[in-house]
Amino acid sequence: MSAHTDLNTGPLEYRSHEGRMTILGFWIFLGAEVVLFSTLFATYAVLFGKTADAPVPAELFELPMVLIMTFLLLTSSFTCGIAIHHMRRGSLKGLFVWLGITLALGLGFLGFEIYEFVHYAHEGASLPSSAFWSAFFVLTGTHGLHVLLGIGWAVLILIQLRQRGLTPVTSRKVFVVGLYWHFLDVIWIFIFTSVYLIGMVV
Amino acid sequence: MVSIVLVSIAIVFVLTYFKKWGWLWREWITTVDHKKIGIMYIIAALAMLFRGGVDALLMRTQLTLPGMEFLDSQHYNEIFTTHGTIMIIFMAMPFLIGLMNYIVPLQIGARDVAFPFLNALSFWSFAFGAMIFNLSFVIGGSPDAGWTSYTPMAGAALNPGPAQNYYLIGLQVAGIGTLATGINFMVTILKMRAPGMNMMRLPIFTWSTFITSFIIVFAFPILTVALALMTIDRIFGSHFFTLTGEGMPMMWANLFWLWGHPEVYIVILPAFGIFSEVISTFARKQLFGYKAMVYSMVVIAGLSFIVWVHHFFTMGAGGGVNSFFSITTMLIAVPTGVKIFNWLGTMYKGRIRFDTPMLWSLAFIPCFVIGGVTGVMLAMAAADYQYHNTYFLVAHFHYVLIAGTVFGCFAGLTFWYPKMFGHKMNEKLGKISFWLFVIGFNVCFFPMYFLGFAGMPRRTYTIEPEWMPLNVTASIGAVLMAIGFAVFVYNIYYSFRYSKRETHGDTWDGRALEWATTTPVPFYNFATVPKVEGPEAYWILKEKGGTTYEKDKVEPIHMPSDSGIPFIMMAFMFVASFGLIWEWMWMAIPGIIGVLVCMVIRSFDYDDGFYVSVKEIKRIEEKAREGEQ
Ligand code: HEM
Ligand SMILES: [Cu+2]
């Protein structure tokens, strides 16, 4: 444990030994998350088409809504990048604004997802309907839950930024939550293609 | 069950009587010191070894004579299930993680692990996970579907009630902590090494920890998902593994063993690391073929992920699939063989000392070879149709798990014991317990190979008359092992009372950095971190007359503060888990909220630890080093 900053160059979040270790640890954690989602994807693939008496996905999936969700999430990843850019320039205000926009977009995404789930349930496709729908809801639901946690977490960090401004610690936290956010975006791209697009054509 | 309640009451009573609650809280429950956490892991693991061992004795009693009515079939099912689960998840892994916790930061010359707070969290998640699992014997019934919990047998339709939920949630809670441990050690080893310690100078136990951490990070999320899916199946009515709704029970077997096979290497590789350390120390030679050791571990780790189907060759996968997995499985014998030859090479022309840790390591080699060779026999898919689910398998996996992991844990504990507690374990008692245990082990499990050939199935609660002689032999062996274990535990007490206190840190004339600091180890580990100039850092340091206390180079040391949050957070997790197990959402939801609140509090916690002053360091070092000159 050495708290002294052992480097004075480079981005703020990398300027302490702790900061570097946390960021490395988080990358490894993301590796574990990749395994987690891969397992869920594999499960989904195995159970694909096992809809029993419930509706098949092509009957329910709607391209426009999924496109909107994708648009919201991709844009939020972009705005999150801008937020980090402002952080690098030392602009707390820019960071605030763009991170705020990011969270708003994330909330929008969640809103659509909840709407989607409720809608499907009305049409007779919910978690207990069949193996396929179980896999669908657990895969997309896990992603959604991650988004929700990401939003809650980022809000906490915004509060801390208010209290403390940009320090090696707060900037490290912002950077890490940013990584997380991009990661969720990447996962969504896989969900979009392998769940929705394939589900619509097959 | 009664015993669990009585022991708990006794502990509470003793603590209250001696007014030790505050001490317990300050010194242990809130600690983030890797050494104390390591010791807590080991104590818990020993307790679990006892519990699992009692289960084993109960089973062996039931199986001694044909027509025994000691346990009924349901009870037998519950016992082999909890025995297997506890031994692997709550005994073997925590024991090794405990040793890693204590030793790895010392071996790399670090002050602590990378994330001390997270480390405490990991420990408490394991401890509460184990508590949840053990509670199943007291309230609501124990899981009875085997430690593999195959569906549909373990599903809600065939296995209603909370029993199976204990398994799912107990493992889930403990698993989260294990994952965190894996991440923690990877970062620790990558980022906290003393100056000059490059990766190819790492002590081999640290290498084994590093590779094990990799396996943990890539295997445990699979378990997390598998357990979660079955939990959702059971509690919320989904259809992953059910027979209805087009679910696929077979998928459980795949997911389980995709994690499960790497898991057996999680409990074997660190043991390999321990044996390597012990053998080179007691043969008084540098480890032979260091690089080959490292690469073979890497290869084993890689292969461990592509063999899982060998656990269900007989479940209808088809010839092509079976052949593939048969071959990958047999391949593992190659790097393992390399390691065996390296150990033998290390001893060749060494001046061997036969202290207890060395005895455990020596006994490991032939026993493990027997286990390994029979493993290759099992790996032949066609032949496996003959041995599958017989006692041949039971003999095989106990040969590798006990000779590998349990001997390794005993070797490691006796080896590092003086470092941890400042005195050796008594050699004479150590040898008695060693011989009892090793002889008992062979008497117990060797006959089981033949029982397997004779067709005695695994997980049977009663035996045929013609299997009796070998079963009687096995039970005698089990009793010998139990006595050996009892002597081992008595030895801990005896040594605590009577062993000579150590006055210096280097009990066995060691080679790696953990021996370079004083005994007992100060909480900051090293007053001044040594510069590493080659493999076997301490050996070089000794030859040059260096020290880890260079008086005029002492600087203030930064250390993390203790925290009660890990314990409290996991206590909430315990409440949430109990709610989920009984499907009481009114209890589960507040529990989860408690966990989240703890996370929020932690997020706002900017406590940056404290500095130990130069004066304080000098005072501690001078006192500890008095005896040395
Ligand atoms: C201490 C001496 C031990 C004895 C006498 C013993 C004995 C047994 C017996 C009789 C069974 C049940 C076999 C059956 O009915 O199919 C069993 C199962 C098992 N044991 Fe042990 N055991 C011992 C130690 C261990 C250790 C140290 C481990 C792991 C590190 C272990 C892991 C297992 C596992 C995984 C199973 C399979 C459980 C299942 O079928 O679900 N055992 N053992
Ligand atoms: Cu295996």
From TrEMBL, chain A:
Keywords: Cell membrane, Membrane, Oxidoreductase, Transmembrane, Transmembrane helix. The keyword Cell membrane applies. One of its GO terms (biological process) is ATP synthesis coupled electron transport. It comes from the Bacteria. It is an enzyme of class 1 (oxidoreductase). It is a multi-pass membrane protein. Catalyzes quinol oxidation with the concomitant reduction of oxygen to water. PANTHER family: CYTOCHROME BO(3) UBIQUINOL OXIDASE SUBUNIT 3, CYTOCHROME C OXIDASE SUBUNIT III. This is Quinol oxidase subunit 3. It comes from Alteribacillus bidgolensis.
